[in-house]
Amino acid sequence: MANLSEQEMLAMAGYGHMLSNNAVQHITLGPGQDRQDYGDLAVVYDPAMGMNQDVIIPHCENIQPIINHIFGLGDVQSCTVTRGG
Q1: Rounded CA gap, 26 and 23, in Å?
Q2: CA torsion 15→16→21→25, rounded to 10°?
Q3: What pLDDT was estimated at residue 43?
Q4: Could you identify which of 6, 11, 54, 60 might form a hypothetical disulfide with 79, taking C-beta atoms 3.0 to 4.6 angstroms apart as the criterion?
Q5: For 23-68, what is each residue's pLDDT tens digit?
Q6: In Å, how far are 5, 7, 13 from 16, measured between CA atoms?
Q7: Rounded distance, CA 67 to CA 62, Å?
Q8: What is the pLDDT of residues 8-23, one digit of tens each?
Q9: What does the pLDDT read at residue 1?
């Protein structure tokens, strides 16, 4: 988590205001169908919190092509999921 100063937040808002609607791309992680299936809902125990947390386990094979397209990464594999034990 990052703490942004008031000036940084205003700068980001100003930058976002200048973007056209076509420049903003997004996906929503979570269950879906076919190639739109970006993750599974799960409940995992978080020892730091001492309780269960609701999470989404991403489906990197479906997300990676979108990440690569948005950021112009070619065939880079940057989405990885590891399960702790």
Answers
A1: 10
A2: 110
A3: 95
A4: 60
A5: 777 778 888 888 789 999 999 999 999 999 999 999 999 989 988 8
A6: 17, 14, 5
A7: 10
A8: 989 988 888 888 877 7
A9: 46
3-state secondary structure 28-53: CCCCCCHHHCCEEEEEEEECCCCEEE
Write out the H or E segment, with its range, that includes residue 15. helix 6-18
- In this structure, which amino acid lies at residue 7? Q
Q: Which two tokens stand for residue 36?
A: 């739109």
Neighbours of 82 (CB within 10 A): 5
User: Can you give the pTM of this predicted structure?
Assistant: 0.57
Instruction: State whether residue 21 is helix, strand or coil.
Output: helix
Note the residue count of the chain.
85
